[in-house]
Design brief:
Lipocalin; eight-stranded antiparallel β-barrel; globular
C-alpha cells in the first residue's frame, strides 16, 4: 500500500447549509403496506421509535434499486479487502458540488452510480459508464487522494440514461485531483469531502456521500 506522509490532516469539516429534501421526513405519512423495506428492518414503523428520516428512506430505495441493477449483471465489483473501507460497492446518494443543484441524485438514477475504493485504485460505474482512478491513502488512512479519474462506456450494448454522464462528471469534479477526508457518518455510509483551507463557517467543502447495501 502506498502512503503519503505529507498529506495534512483536515480540520473538522465546516458547517453545512444543505438544502432540505422536499419529500416528507415523517414516516407516519407512509401507509404500513407501502413502507420501503430494508433487510433487517420491520415491515411497519414502531410507534415508540423516532420517525424515519428522509435520508434513511432514500437509502432503502437506493439499496433496492442497486439489487435490481446487480441482477441484470451490469455491476462488477473490483477491489481489495485490505482497503481501509473494505471491498464494498459504495452507492452514490448525494453530491455536494453546486449550491444551485440538488444534492440528492434523481430517483431514476438511484442505484446506478457506485465506486469500489481499493488500496491504490478506484473502480465503479455510473449507469452505462465505467469509472476508474488512482488512489493514494495517507498514513493515518483518514484521507486519500484521487487522480486519473476517467469514465468510458462499459460496452456497446450498455443502456444509458441521460443523467449517467452528468453524474460521472459531477463525481469527477469533486473527487479527481483532490485530497479528500474519509468519514463514516453511519456504519453503512461513507463520505468523501475535499480538504480545503480558509472556508468560512457558512461554507461547505464539496463532497460525495455513499451508502452500502451490503
Amino acid at each position: 500500500m502506498t502512503y503519503r506522509s505529507d498529506l495534512t490532516r483536515s480540520a473538522s469539516s465546516p458547517g453545512s447549509n444543505r438544502p432540505l429534501p422536499l419529500a416528507s421526513t415523517d414516516a407516519s405519512s407512509y401507509p404500513a403496506s407501502t413502507m420501503p423495506e430494508h433487510p433487517g428492518s420491520p415491515a411497519t414503523p414502531d410507534a415508540s421509535a423516532p420517525s424515519t428520516t428522509n435520508a434513511s428512506l432514500r437509502r432503502r430505495c437506493i439499496g433496492a434499486s442497486a439489487l435490481a441493477f446487480v441482477s441484470l449483471g451490469l455491476l462488477t465489483a473490483c477491489g481489495n479487502s485490505d482497503s481501509p473501507v473494505g471491498n464494498t460497492q459504495w452507492q452514490v446518494t448525494e453530491i455536494y458540488d453546486d449550491s444551485s443543484r440538488a444534492n440528492y441524485l434523481p430517483d431514476n438514477l438511484q442505484g446506478r452510480a457506485y465506486v469500489v475504493i481499493g488500496e491504490d485504485s478506484l473502480t465503479g460505474a455510473s449507469g452505462c459508464l465505467s469509472l476508474r482512478g488512482n488512489v493514494e491513502w495517507n498514513y493515518e488512512q483518514d484521507e486519500l487522494s484521487i487522480s486519473g479519474f476517467t469514465s468510458e462506456p462499459l460496452d456497446k450494448d450498455a443502456q444509458c440514461l441521460p443523467g449517467d454522464e452528468d453524474t460521472a462528471a459531477r463525481m469527477k469534479d469533486v473527487m479527481d485531483g483532490h485530497t479528500l477526508s474519509v468519514s463514516r457518518p453511519e456504519s453503512d455510509t461513507l463520505k468523501l469531502q475535499q480538504v480545503l483551507d480558509g472556508l468560512e463557517d457558512w461554507q461547505t467543502a464539496p463532497s460525495v456521500e455513499f451508502f452500502s447495501g451490503d
